From TrEMBL:
Cross-referenced Pfam families: MMR_HSR1, YqeH-like_C
Positions of the CP-type G domain: 56-222
Name of the protein in question: Ribosome biogenesis GTPase YqeH
Underlying gene: yqeH
InterPro entries tied to this protein: G_CP_dom, GTP-bd, GTP-bd_ribosome_bgen_YqeH, Mito_lipid_metab_GTPase, NOA1/YqeH-like_C, P-loop_NTPase
UniProt cross-references to NCBIfam families, sorted A to Z: GTPase_YqeH
Transmembrane segments: none
Amino acid sequence: MEKIYCEGCGAEIQTEDKTKSGFVPQSALSNEHIICQRCFRLKHYNEVQEVEYTDDDYLRMIHQVSDTNSLVVKIVDIFDFNGSFISGLQRLTGKNPVILVGNKVDLLPKSTNHNKLIHWMKKTASDFGLTVQDVFLVSAAKGQGFEQMEAEIEARRNGKDVYVVGCTNVGKSTFINQLINRSSGVKDAITTSYFPGTTLGFIQIPLDEKSYMYDTPGVVNRTQLVHYVTDKDLKLITPKKEIKPKVYQLQDKQTLFLGGFARFDFEKGVKQSFVCYVSNLLMIHRTKLDQADTFYEKHVGDLLQPPSPETMEMLPPLVKQTMKIPYDKTDIVIPGLGWITVPEGGVTVSIHVPKGVHISLRSALI
């Protein structure tokens, strides 16, 4: 019997075991378009069923790309570059050239310096051991930035297949749906969801008579904040509209809480205005540093929200990291949340983030 694959997630269709990926009732095999029960429930009820794949299974699938002669398009989330960057990607994809695409550019403030962001992305990728041919900033949801990127992909692939890779929740399926919609007018051809790991196998999309684009499974990176929050909280910390900068003038020994997910302590330095670039729905509170511990214990999940009680059960404890900011106009990037701009250097600050989430510094984008 010829193998059939789910049009939603790419898993091989089977009718034997409801608990395994690709299951459909026998009666569904006669349908013109076949999607597995998992994708059906995801599409119609936004309900995600667990599958038997492990994190390593996803990495092994991506490693198959190294045996091909193709072009790799790597998608990252601009607001979670480090968390959405696949470690060891050069090893997983072999000698194939890589184009790096930063998604969700429409959510950045209009004053963002795009050239500076592109330069930073290329340098950071290099620091992670990945050489990229080019960097593009796009909005998969709105189709922004696609024309130039599509032309570059077509030129660089030179008739070869294209593999689209990315961590979970970076908008990879939305990105491919946008490409398909622009070329064929078919909307939402691939299952999309807020939830990580919804694409289970390689989904094959024809580019021409001889070559294909492949949507690959979302790689799970456990340093991503997304893996420790409920879908409700994820919608609150993930921007949906252009971010409005929030300015707070702080003296030393004052603290800012970004909901209950992160804490910024101004330990030492001259009075200045710090600018927060986070989701417009994320609540920010200011308090005195010597009261911050008590304030957090009393108000997390209440005044400091999100997180919800359900997320608090999963969220690792906040871990403190103290650093001296040597340069003027420095961004402190908190993966999964956004960033705080420090206007003047020579200050000492402490950042508290969930254990396993890695903050980084860069020259201010704005």
